[in-house]
Amino acid sequence: MRIIKIFDTTLRDGEQSPGASMNVDEKIQVAKQLVKLGVDIIEAGFPFASPGDFDAVKRIANEVKGAIIAGLARAKEDDIKSAYEALKDAPMKRIHTFHSTSDIHLKYQFRVSREEALKRSVEMVKLARSLVEDVEFSPMDATRTEIPYLLDVVEAVIEAGASTVNIPDTVGYTTPTEFGNMIKAIKEKIGDKAVISVHCHNDLGLAVANSLAAIINGAGQVECTINGIGERAGNCSMEEIVMNLKTRKDFYNADTNINTREIIRTSRLITRITGMAVQPNKAIVGANAFAHESGIHQDGLLKEKMTYEIMRPEDIGLQKTELVLGKHSGRHAFKDRLQELGYELSAEEIDTAFKKFKHLADQKKDIFNEDLEALVSEEVSKIPEIYSLVDLSISSGVSVKPTAALKLKVNNDVVEKMEHGDGPVDAVYKAIASITKTKSNLQKFEVKSVTGGMDALGEVTVTIEEDGKAVRGQGADTDIIVAAAKAYINALNKLAVRKR
Ligand code: KIV
Ligand code: ZN
Fold first, then answer.
1. Please, are residues 219 and 253 in contact by the beta-carbon 8 Å criterion?
2. Which residues are registered as beta bridge partners of 416?
3. I need a surface site. Which of 60, 134, 319, 461 has the fewest CB within 10 A?
4. Do 300 and 255 belong to one domain?
5. Cα 92 vs. chain centroid, distance in angstroms?
6. Distance 238 CA to ligand 2 centre (A)
């Protein structure tokens, strides 16, 4: 059985989704989870793009072991050197360099001839190969490139030292049959001289189908992202490609190294960090993906699961929501459960999270894994707390003007303020803005319940913007107004860090 390599680009192309930017600590957390998931290659970022990207790639290269760490670089000397500087300490590293090859790009965007593009590509692959062993080259906009020229470029970069050639459908334009034929032609030309990779965008909703067609025709690596996030309509979704291969091994005769039981956890982590929710009917990781509503289906399932279930929920790590802890659970059990969930917190972070847990346990009888994850996510993102909530009381109702009385700790001082608003959240946000003397605009406000039940923890995600900088904040509490206050304060703390 062929093993298809999974090249995850959530931290690079995924991060190019509008609003999906992540801070360095969040990227490290994602990269560590990707290792647990079993991806072969992690594209950690584009080091030359910004100092923040450079630092993130460097830290991932230094701290994350267990996968090849790749850095993106245009076919330019400075880009490639910067990628090398960021990657050099990684035990397994790859420079991924690219140059457009379609006439549309060459003529209108880069204003270079085909010959010049080919020459630069070859020179830059050689430069990359002089720095690292493992070099990948992408002819950007390959699917709108004339095949004979594409074949020339592919052959030349392999000759120059590229061991992987990645064929991007940059604008999501191709179709499964057309793309399959293109990959077949490349495979016939290069044989086993290099691995053929594919990188499909989802503009026409065909990224997964196109990638599967490529696998059938000889591709040995797929570039993809968790939850399919990415530029515009996104990239090929990792969970979909992986579960297609696993479920239809009989057809594709191929599999991956992915530990599929880590899929749901990884998907939820990305949702939490990027604030980009997954649509409920999304294949594999959507909330309804394993929910059977119709009577006929439920009847069949009760008799024999195979009647309507082609994958088992356990295979992607979905378990019956498990009761974990309650009011009487001790620190030890709490710490063990966090470890099982994959959180590595310092003693100090555990202390803070444990206090929050005890507080929650007073309000909520049963605490589930999802509650714990919501509870510790602030500790994990390690945002210094310039502002923190001390107390909040609200009065509102049909005939009462919504009023918030807020106590906020600002550095080491506790400041109090009372404000009215159009609703309770408005009143709280006015009080916070007044104490912190900030003038941010609220762009997005989302509320969701972490688990079911009347006492469920509510999670609020907000996006605020100030001086062109947008940040997301999250807060969870059994009281939704308190969760909203925490989310806003979390966003302001992030904004303060960014301003510094
Ligand atoms: O979509 C694309 O063409 C890319 C390349 C940089 C591989 O992301
Ligand atoms: Zn892309």
1. no
2. 407
3. 319
4. no
5. 22
6. 14
* Nearest residue to 124 via CA among 93, 152, 83, 88: 83
Split into its structural domains, the chain has a count of 4
Bridge partners (DSSP) listed for residue 135: 95
Q: Say yes or no: 402 and 361 in one domain.
A: no
Query: Domain range spanning residue 349?
Result: 331-380
**229 Cα–ligand 1 center, Å:** 14
For 301-346, the pLDDT digits (tens) are 788 888 888 999 999 998 755 556 777 888 888 888 887 777 778 8
| The dihedral sign for the CA sequence 72, 75, 79, 80 | positive
- The ligand that comes nearest to the alpha carbon of residue 136 is 1
Query: Of 194, 178, 35, 177, nearest to 129 (Cα)?
Result: 194
How distant is the alpha carbon of residue 375 from its chain centre?
A: 20
Judge if 150 and 266 occupy the same domain.
yes
Ligand 2 centre distance from Cα of residue 186 (Å): 20
Query: Best mutation site among 11, 97, 144, 170 for ligand 1, i.e. most ligand atoms within 8 A of its Cβ?
Result: 170
- Both tokens of 63, joined, read 């701290």
Residue 324 in domain: no
DSSP 8-state code for residue 285: T
**Domain harbouring 149, CATH code:** 3.20.20.70
User: 383-438, pLDDT tens digit by residue?
Assistant: 778 999 999 999 999 999 999 999 999 998 999 999 999 999 999 999 999 999 99
Q: How many CB atoms lie within 10 A of CB 247?
A: 15
Pocket of ligand 1 (CB under 6 A): 13, 98, 138, 140, 166, 168, 170, 199, 201
> Atom of ligand 1 at shortest distance to CA of 235?
1
